[in-house]
Structure formats: structure tokens, C-alpha cells
Design a protein that fits this description.
The chain is α+β, with helices and mostly antiparallel strands and 84 residues long. Helix content is 17%, strand content 37%. It has 2 helices and 5 strands; from the N terminus they run ββαβββα. A hairpin with a 3-residue loop joins β4 and β5.
Length: 84
């Protein structure tokens, strides 16, 4: 299964549990049918990617934020030789 990365317009901090917004819930639970216990990545525009685990799936989706890495560490981008 492809790794899921979702935007959340909220403060993200390691150790916190958050409830996904309506769009995140719908996409993760209804569209992808993502099960409890799987890992996702959250971001909020602060330059970090937050690794989280789906903790509860009911009429809402609660995730537990476990760690973060800078977005730059996750991105590998190579230019074609003609652009160097």
C-alpha cells in the first residue's frame, strides 16, 4: 500500500493525539479504507513531516504523532544533466 501524506491545518507536536479534519478523515477512512494501526505522514506547512499512527477509527479518526523529520530530509530531487 502506498504511504499516505495528509495536510492538517493545526499545530502538530510529538506525543500528541489529534483528530483529523473532515477532509483527512474522509480521504483516509472512506476513500482509502485505511485501518487502525497503520502509519501515515502529516504536515502543516512548518517544514516538518510528522510520522503518525492511526489510533482510532470511528465517526472520527484519531492519530498519534510519533516523530518528525524535516521535509528536506525526505525529498530527493535530481536535475537532468541538460539543466545542470
Amino acid at each position: 500500500m502506498k504511504h499516505v501524506r495528509l495536510y492538517q491545518n493545526t499545530h502538530l507536536q510529538i506525543g500528541n493525539k489529534i483528530i483529523l479534519d473532515d477532509y483527512g478523515y474522509h480521504h483516509l477512512v472512506k476513500v482509502l479504507r485505511f485501518p487502525q494501526g497503520k502509519d501515515i505522514t502529516l504536515f502543516n506547512g512548518d517544514g516538518m513531516n510528522y510520522h503518525a499512527r492511526v489510533a482510532k477509527v470511528k465517526k472520527y479518526c484519531e492519530v498519534s504523532i510519533e516523530e518528525f523529520v524535516t521535509a528536506k530530509e525526505n525529498v530527493t530531487f535530481k536535475l537532468p544533466k541538460s539543466l545542470n
